[in-house]
């Protein structure tokens, strides 16, 4: 595998937050209280994020003083304390200057730091909404640790935020072609790397081997870790690999992929030029995996072909 190491400055979207999570403040109410005057809050309405234009817009946390025990403290961002709180439609309507937008749809236009804070807020709100009751005894939970623990007093169980690991893999063959797949329902011409959830009791490497076999009937003979990306849609962390596979003709199972095929750089370049080939946008780990493979042996970088970074 000749693909070079991944340059950290090219991390995919939702990474590289300048936010300091400062976990010790989750149990330090006094520290949070002292920082309240300049603190801000990210209201989240139906998992939509508050924006003004393409910029994250926050509100003074003081406005929510009576409800901060229900808010989740995210950390310190640009020296300011940041909370997030779920709000109702009626509340959201009180702030006409904010428009609440879908993070996934807006991510391509956002500043990386804003996108990272929104991804964190969205993931925490999603987790908290789904753990209002204890999974063991069914009684109501209550937030502690500034919203980072949901505690069941009835049976003494503490619930912690979770991310579901999911792997993405860019497979090359010995001719240095790239294996891409299409899921049913994707727009015409859209292709991406293969992906799958890590199952309980399974290593990520085993997931790579299993999914490439299940989805394309290709045997993986080697792999290397590439990079990762939080993916709060709703609760994943994506773990990216480069792999080498047998140069067999891919065979798809209809309940997994609609199609899978090997692509040369020339095919991809020609498809992009003629607009008959598309892939996920540049903030995604999928794009970065394809780009890293493409660029290590191409006259012109992939970003030049799609016209943006
Ligand atoms: Zn319980």
Automatic annotation (TrEMBL):
Nudix hydrolase domain boundaries: 161-285
GO biological process: NAD+ catabolic process; NADP+ catabolic process
Family: Belongs to the Nudix hydrolase family. NudC subfamily.
Keyword Ribonucleoprotein: no
GO molecular function: metal ion binding; NADH pyrophosphatase activity
UniProt cofactor(s): Mg(2+); Zn(2+)
Top-level class of the enzyme under EC nomenclature: hydrolase
Keywords: Hydrolase, Magnesium, Metal-binding, NAD
Catalytic activity, as annotated: a 5'-end NAD(+)-phospho-ribonucleoside in mRNA + H2O = a 5'-end phospho-adenosine-phospho-ribonucleoside in mRNA + beta-nicotinamide D-ribonucleotide + 2 H(+)
Originating organism: Oceanococcus atlanticus
Protein name as annotated: NAD(+) diphosphatase
Source taxon at top rank: Bacteria
UniProt keyword NAD, yes or no: yes
GO CC list: cytosol
Pfam families in the cross-refs: NUDIX (PF00293), NUDIX-like (PF09296), Zn_ribbon_NUD (PF09297)
Entry's EC annotation: 3.6.1.22
């Amino acid at each position: 595998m000749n693909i070079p190491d991944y340059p950290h400055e090219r991390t995919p979207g939702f990474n590289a937050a300048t936010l300091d999570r400062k976990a010790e403040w989750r149990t330090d109410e006094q520290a949070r209280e002292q920082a309240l005057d300049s603190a801000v809050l990210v209201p989240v309405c139906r998992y939509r994020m508050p924006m003004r234009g393409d910029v994250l817009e926050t509100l003074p946390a003081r406005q929510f003083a009576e409800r901060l025990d229900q808010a989740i403290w995210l950390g310190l961002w640009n020296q300011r304390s940041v909370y997030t709180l779920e709000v109702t439609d009626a509340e959201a309507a009180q702030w006409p200057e904010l428009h609440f937008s879908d993070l996934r749809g807006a991510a391509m236009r956002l500043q990386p730091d804003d996108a990272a804070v929104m991804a964190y807020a969205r993931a925490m709100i999603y987790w908290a909404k789904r753990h209002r009751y204890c999974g063991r005894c069914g009684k109501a939970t209550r937030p502690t640790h500034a919203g980072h623990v949901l505690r069941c007093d009835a049976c003494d169980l503490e619930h912690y935020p979770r991310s579901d690991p999911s792997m993405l893999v860019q497979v090359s063959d010995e001719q240095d072609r790239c294996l891409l797949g299409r899921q049913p329902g994707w727009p015409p011409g859209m292709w991406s790397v293969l992906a799958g959830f890590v199952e309980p009791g399974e290593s990520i490497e085993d997931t790579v081997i299993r999914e490439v076999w299940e989805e394309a009937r290709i045997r993986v003979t080697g792999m290397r870790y590439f990079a990762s990306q939080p993916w709060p849609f709703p609760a994943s962390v994506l773990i990216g690999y480069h792999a080498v596979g047998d140069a067999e003709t891919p065979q798809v199972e209809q309940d997994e992929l609609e199609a899978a095929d090997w692509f040369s750089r020339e095919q991809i370049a020609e498809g992009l030029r003629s607009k008959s080939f598309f892939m996920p946008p540049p903030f995604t780990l999928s794009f970065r995996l394809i780009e890293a493979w493409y660029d290590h042996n191409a006259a012109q970088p992939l970003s030049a072909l799609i016209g943006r970074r």
